[in-house]
Every structure is written in structure tokens, then in C-alpha cells.
């Protein structure tokens, strides 16, 4: 049954899009005018989904609120992006990006509100059961969730304002409902805070104006409750910069600790100190900052490796030690690099040493190379240094197998790349081509196998020859080639012409007025599209309809091509015998890339890359996490009995990712570096 709120979104009988021209001769309308009309219509459809989603959220219909921003929304957004490219205006391109951001922010907002209300119900149950420890723990979790909901609300409202200004489509009701929902969460949390938690105030200052690794600064501080009473005679946990430690307060709540910088940037820095109560504590967290001049020291680093000669897939062990004037330097990252490729990254332990064991990848060129241990710092409290040991990389012979079979209007090619001793060669590009037809570059999977579909086979041929080649110019793997011949199912069947649109009427109806999964939003009428319906009666619409249909339509043959290829990447249109096409295979952000982001002070990019690498590692152990949002990932580990310290580390990364990916303001350097280090520690566990 349709709700009253949803029923209000049904369109009126008369178009009301503000366009005085309700009917036009399509023959007199330019392609750009078609695009403008389509852009406006699609913007309204997208805005309607946002509005209906906020209505569903206000009614507690979380799945409905998410579904409205799901696949159908994505389809409309893809159409909007295509049209934006046709209108010739940068404003439409910017609006497409803003719609994408609004979708992600509204999804996150829905998730956050649902999470808060679930936590609130559990909190009430704990209070009714007299379980004060659980109630306090939940209240503290709710404090973080409520803050995230508030932040997401601000970002979403900014999206709405930008979209309303750019598209002239009203988002007033969406904003009103989002603000009402946020106010409800804020009000509930204020009550929870008053019932269960006690606010705290921490103050800190540096006793000296400078700090270095060899001469740390003494930090003096005090913790008290909001009512002025001291948090006296207890051991508390503090986070100073990006490191945590325990300190003991005296009768006045005062404490002392030291700040020994490692990754902090050189020069005057504002360093945060946060009081971190335990999850069951009655006290709330608080933070303060002190200012200090960070000075640099230059460490010494040594490296050893074993064995002295390796080939593809062999185990390579390396160890390194970092000291300053004989004192071990703990807590700094060391990268193990071969031939400028970072193979591992490990943080030094209490004795200043690291140990790493990795398998040699294919991307390291053969010949005389070096294993390098380096501290990837620049302008930091501990200077970046490196040390190297000679390494010989031997070339490995490879074998390439290939078979092919006819498939409709094309050929499916399958094969496998192995070393001579039978090791699968994973994640390498193989060039595959059918004579007289398509050529593609595909990437082998974890077992060294590949598969792709080739089309445009010569129409008159009874057989087809398929060739595959592996021949990377820079690698420790030798070249390999293979050939297969396939008998075609029909000598008269060539590749289908994918350039022509399908039925004009079918295309227009399915693209412009197809099932959308949601009601038409408030204020969204037929607008400038009355002429489309009328024009369908006559052949005069053919030219105009082709413009829209060709822009959006996906033909059956195209779908078959896309679904039949299981390759990671593909590049069309080369001849195996004509040289090497330029191929770019996407890879997860490396530690070196993350450090480069940090060095360039691109903190948002560093955090997003670190989160992506962490999620990829976690999803490798649990496929259910592949499609999880960052908050769902955190909830997964929080609910399955994961150690609190690990959950806290994941939370640090997730909350930083939330700010970096969705906040209009950049994340600060300290929080970014803390998140990056947390992600790296988690990946090593």
C-alpha cells in the first residue's frame, strides 16, 4: 500500500516545469536542445529519489531509503552524465559530480541514522536491565555515531544547495526532512549524555619550546570533570600525536609525559593530546593542543638480505635496523624496495629493527639489482635515509597455453600463463587477437588463467586463428606465444552491427519513461516532454528519437560482449605482430603512493588510499566485506567479537576515511597520518 507521503509525489496532469513551450516540432529542435531538455528531466527524477528517500528515512523505512538510491538511481545518474557531456556546459558536468556525491552522502546518512537508532534501542534495553557498563559503552558509541550523523547532514545539505543552485530543482523538502532527522538524533543523544556520561576537560602545555627524537619535550597537563572536580589518582590513556601511552594523574588530576617526535613535520607544529576513556567508562573523551618546534635528527640504517640470487616467485628475506647515535628508533616505517619497486613496509619495533619476507614479483627486471631498506620520510622529525645490498634477479622461462571456441558472432579465447616449472603467473597482461578481428589485452587471474571474447571475426571465414602473446618489456619473465584455430559455427555470420539503435519506440519508452522503481517526485511534471509523447504518433520523430536512444541504449550484442569477458581489463584494436600497445593495469595504491600523498600534503588522498588497501586486505579474508560500506565494515568487526584494540584501530581508519572522502574540508595532517599508520598496523596483523 502506498503511503500518504509517497502519494503526494504523484505528478499533476499538466506539465509544470516552467517551460512555456509545451510542444515543438522535433525537426526544428537541435541536438543540444534535446540534451538540455533531457538533462532537466533527469535532474528532476534524481531529485525526486532524494526526496522520497528522506521521506522513507523519516518513517524508519531504511531499506526503502537505500533502494531509492540504488541501481535505478545509478542508471539515471549514468544517463545524466552522458547527457551532461552533450550539453556543452561545465555546469552540467559539475552537477553530475554533485549528484554522485549527494547519493553517497545520503546513503551514509541513512546508514548512520539507522545505526544510531539501533544503538539507542540497545541502550534503552541495557538501562532497563540495570546493565550500567553496557549502557555506558553503548552511550559512548552513540556519541560517535551522533557526531557522524551531524557531519553527514551538513555535507548532504551542502550537496542539496549546490544542486538546487545549478539545476533550479527544489531540494527544500529533502533539506527539511534531513534537518528534522538530525535534530531528533542530536536531542536523543543530549538526553543519553546527561543520563549516563560525564564530560571531561583536558589542558596541556609543552615545558620546552623544541622537541626532537633525541631531546623530547616534556608535556604537562591536567584532566578534570566538567564540574571542575579533578580526575584524580588514576591511570588514564592518552593519545599524543599519533601514539598512545598510559599516564597517572595526581590528586589534582595533573600528569606529565614526553613528546618524542618521529613522523611529525619539521618546524612549528600544533600537536593534539586526547584523553581516551575505556569503552565502559562513565567519562567522555576530550582533547587539547600544545605548540612546539620540531627539530630533525638523521638516523643510521643497515640492511641484510637472503638469498643473494632470486627468480620469479622466490622468497626474499630482508632485515633492517634503525638507530640514532646508537639508540634504537622504534615506531618508524621501513620500506623494502627492489629496483625501485616497494615490496613491503614494516614498522620498527622497540629494538629499532624490522624483518620482512616477500615473494619476488614479475615486475622487477632481471639482472644485477639491489635490495634497499629506506625510511620514506621527507622533512620529518626522523630524516629519510636508506641502505642497499646487491641482489641478482634471474630470468624465468614462461609457457603460454591457449584454446578457442566459437561463440555467437565471435570467439571465446581461454588460456594460462605458467613458468617452466609450473608456477602460475598472476596479474600479468596477455595480448590476444583473432585474425581479421578484435585484439584485446587481458590480465591473468591468481591461477595464471585468462579468458576474453573477441568479435568482428571475418564474415566469410570458415575458421579463425587466434594468437596470444606475453612479452612485457620490463620483467624477469621470458616471452611466450601461443596459437589456436577455431572452426566457426557459420561461415556467413559476421559480427553484429552495434552502431544502429533498436526500435525507436522501444528505445525511447525504455530509456525515458521505463520503470523507475519510484513515484514521480513532487513538482516533477511531464514538462518539455509532452511533445515526445505526441511526436511518437508520427514518423517525424525518428531523427530526434535516435539522438536520445543512441545516447542511452545498450544493445543486446553489447551486453553479450560485456558479460562474456571475464578479463580484468581489455584494450581493443591492435595487431599482435605490430608491436606493443600501451597498457595500464590498475593496481591498489602502494605504500609508496600513500607516502607520496603525505609528502605532497594531500591528506585526503592518502587516507582514501590507505582505507582502500585495508579494505582490500580484509575482504580477501571475508568476501562479505567486498560490498560493505566503511561503516558496515566497522560494524562487522565490532559485532563479531574482535579485540577492542583492533576495533578501535579500524574505527580510526573508518572515521578518517569518512572525513577525507565526504567532508568538504580537508582532513588535518595529524589525523591523516594516524589513520594511515593504523591501516598499516592492521594490514600487518
Automatic annotation (TrEMBL):
Q: Where is the composition biased (Low complexity)?
A: 1-16
- What keywords are annotated for this sequence in UniProt? Coiled coil, Membrane, Transmembrane, Transmembrane helix
Disordered: annotated segments: 1-39, 561-590
Compositionally biased, Polar residues: which spans?
A: 563-574
Q: Which residues form a coiled coil?
A: 132-166
TM spans (from-to)? 528-549
Q: What is this protein called?
A: DUF4129 domain-containing protein
Which organism is the protein's source?
A: Haloarcula salina
